[in-house]
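hey can u check if this looks right to u? its 137 residues, i copy pasted from the old doc so theres a chance i mangled smth
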Amino acid sequence: MKIYFHEITLSTHKKFELIDITYEVEKAVEKSGIRNGICLVFAPHATAAIIANEHEDGLINDMITKVKEFTQPERSWKHNLIDDNAHAHIGSALFGAERIFPVRDGRLVRGTWQNIFLVEMDGPRYRRRVLVEVLGE
């Protein structure tokens, strides 16, 4: 079995933001040389998440609206007494910091309308990392 590791580094510019990282993940799979296996996409942050969905501006805005409704950033969460970002911790825990995709014939397998996004819920952040690990033959 072969393992390939790649790190994507990016900056976010808004408190809530979806950043499309599909191209970078696909390039990592291509560089890995792995023909068949899996690709793990992981955000090592307690206030961000990874999702797969359509890249359409209206839908992106709708998702951000729903993330805000779901996580309630204006609510008086107890963690906000320490650091005003409890909503982002809750969102990361519930949405998930990772996604796993199949790799077949050297290509990332995803649905026609599935792009890969980092979901920022505690921005702006100067440096966010996304780890891509490809495993297989």
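The chain is about 25% helix and 35% strand.
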